[in-house]
Amino acid sequence: MRRWRRDPRASIVAAPVGERERWVSIAGTVTVELDGAHDLASRLAARYWDLDDPTRAADLAGIPAEDQVRLVLHPETVNRYA
Predict the structure, then answer these.
(1) Residue 82: pLDDT band by 50, 70, 90 thresholds?
(2) CB within 8 A of 72, min separation 6: which ones?
(3) Could you give the angle at which helices 54-62 and 37-48 cross, rounded to 10 degrees?
(4) Phi, psi (5° rounding) for residue 75?
């Protein structure tokens, strides 16, 4: 967190699993947002986790008890290879 406050640049590269030839990279600046992290975690958990699994449900129930922030990447450059 201290690094992003000092130098807010970041990048991310994403590619389909097992696919070397197709990817996208996004670079830009990051802002640290103090609100919305718990809501985002709940939405992502509902989408990607089996919440009928008691372990995952307990993980999700514990999230609001933790201090969390959202890191928002504001794209400045987007590159792709397809």
Answers:
(1) low
(2) 30, 31, 33
(3) 170
(4) -60, 135
